[in-house]
Records
---
Amino acid sequence: MRWLYRLLLVLLFGFLPLPILIVAVSSFTSTGYFTVPLASLSWRWYLEFFTDAQWLGLLAVSAGIALLVAFISTSAALLAALVLDRTRIRGSGVIESLIMLPLVFPNAALGVAFLGLLGLLGVSGSYLGIVLAHCIITLPFAYRPILNSLRKLDPALGEASMSLGARPAQVLRTVTLPMLKPGLITAFLFCFIVSFDEATITVFLVAPDVNTLPVRILTQIQESASPVIAAIATSLIVFTLALVLLLERTVGLEMFAAPERDH
């Protein structure tokens, strides 16, 4: 029976990347429509993407939003982890559950909820509204690795620094933050990836003059089947995989494991 399980695993993991491979192959077609197999190879659609001011503008907008969201979410997750892990407050478990709550709900449901909430705040259909929504959905991806890193620190290091005359702010700046670097890098990059690739929630929050690259790709697929979409999608997949591989090679992905206190 073991060979059957292995065969099922091979078929499963071989089937999962198949749609991505089809999109990647079709992006090199020389015709104006999707064809697999290819009649001939061409970089035509990649050149169109990287020379089109509209696509590049949306790429810059999405990257800017993702950078801002990653910075805000990482900073907020750091503060939350420090407070919940280093101080004893009532309801800390409830607060942690609220932080991780966006992972529970479907993205479509979150999109409808954000649409109503941001409408009440008067920022619906604006880049500010998109940033606020992305900060909430990326917060769990920042909180877990930072908390995991924090719980691997030896509290005696901070206590020793304070016994030598260092103030809490100095301990945070010179001891805690440098040792939290792997968790902070992991949190920042994953928040960037999640925000940059988000389309399901964002589609509820855009406006005629407010758009992002993933949402534009989604709407363009509904309007036409130009192979430039396949070229853009392939470029984004390669970019995301490169970030994940960089993260794995530098600090590792074990930061997302269940946090355990070593000391």
---
Amino acid sequence: MEIDVLSPIDGSLLGSVKKMFKEDVDNIYVKSRNSFKLWKDLSTAKRSEYMYKASEILEKNKEKIADIMSKEISKPYKDSMIEVERTVGLIKYSAEEGMRIFGEVIEGKNYDDSSKTKVAIVKREPVGVVLAISPFNYPINLAASKIVPALISGNTVVFKPASQGVLSGIELVKCFEEAGLPEGVLQVVTGKGSEIGDYLNTHKEIDFINFTGSTPIGERIGMQAKMKPILLELGGKDAAIVLEDADLDKASKDIVSGAFSYSGQRCTAIKRVLVIDKIADELILKIKEKVSKLRVGNPFDDVEITPLIDEKSAIFVEELINDAISKGAIALTEIKREKNLIYPLLLDKVTEDMDIAWVEPFGPVLPIIRVKTEEEALEIANKSEYGLQSSIFTNNIDKAFKFANNLEVGTVHINNKTQRGPDNFPFLGIKNSGAGVQGIRHSILSMTKIKTIVIDM
């Protein structure tokens, strides 16, 4: 049996993938386990050769893969190209970083006299079989950010791409296969998460789960994992806080870019603006002017706003908008939906009793929350169940660091939009935004385990 993959742009058939069942999952996991010993026994240098070769193949096929990605997830073509090119760099850097992960020797004499003859050899070893589950919105980069650090560490990988984004994910795997990666080291599971997801997540052969997606599914995986280690990248409600002394031209530019690129379908998108009331009108005028210039349409037509991943997502965003309007929010741009295409919307006078103030829309809508004081801005920002990222716009360095130190998030951007950043930076969320730390080096460390060997001299 096969599953058809349809384009969110026009509903056209892009291809099909095998609909896998529990028996298929069993076979894949057994193969992954059997391949583990051979792969982990290779030198890091040898494993890195495969990574470099795969990056070259990805670079060579970037136009083709970017084209598939844009058709499959309705991402603007220029952004798809950037994602593929960024992933080429991620693979190369991961190969290099793998060579910089060392064990250590610890002498007991540094602790006390009774231990002075003891020496500990501390090794880093791969955890084993890693289940990597990627989301639809970055089907190449967020897949590679899981797969490559796992592989360079000596793990084997079972890769489950999102059902929307699966063709792009398969193209990435083909690059590694063409690079000569040994059979069974990297395998793809295709099928409906609703049918095989729980079985995939709870299989006895799993040693580690690395997941990016929604908070509810992440919480479910966390419970299913029990004592097995996990790395979760989940939802966000990233705030842009704008103080009285901020450069409003820069703030408005960064806010619009951060909120509306790829139609807001990013966990790190700016999803609310908290602005001091004294400057709110001026800032909103600048934001509105820029939002009105955003281009809407087909991802191959050099636009910023494209159809959302499916109509269900668009209806969800529309419901949040309607709730806000019914409670007194003011739409500063046209409220318009055509199937799964939502036109960019700026909402003023948003208050804490509106769902849009707290719920992650994953669409092109930006709520403005006016606050009277800096303390109120900080309080509202920290009330969120999420803790991924925040931005603070101010020309006062002391205030910038005060907010940075007190915001309950994994990353704070000073005078810039929220964004994932270079792939070698640490990336994490607290509260309901995730568990563990990603970023190339941190991902490698997460997917290795320590073994200590103690000898008496």
